[in-house]
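Sequence and structure are no longer studied apart. To make this concrete, we show below a single chain and its fold as tokens.
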Amino acid sequence: MPVENQEERTVEVLGLPQAVDEELLYLYFENKRRSGGGPLSSVDKHGDRAVLVFEEPNDAARVLSKGHHVLHNAELTVRKPASKDNCRLLLRGVSPNTNMELIELYVENMMELDEEDYTLSRSPGQDLVLIHCRQPFSQGPNAHFTFHRCQMSE
């Protein structure tokens, strides 16, 4: 199935109580009357969040349009998952006092990039840095970068 089609069929659920398991998610989100959904292809639950893939894009759209979902007395947040962009990464947990030169050095070392291979943009709160690479990340064995939460300071 094309990636675009899967993106249209996928929703992310946040704020799940611990007692909610995958089976209950299937039952709730496949119940058209309660959730607006329909048959699910998969449910992937991790902690208080889950990614649901519906068999039909219309079912995902109805779940998103319903807006208000409650399960085990907890109000859930249901949204489209963030798009995957093979040219961008978000670096979180950066101290607002961290010098941009230090961030550049960190990115160049961790990703083995030269300064002309990327640009950096800081968030208004200064604690996030968007790394925009000129080329998409490779599909090879080094395609997955893991940035560990670190305290970068001057």
Summary: Residues 139-154 have pLDDT under 50 and may be disordered. The domain at 3-79 is CATH 3.30.70.330 (Alpha-Beta Plaits).
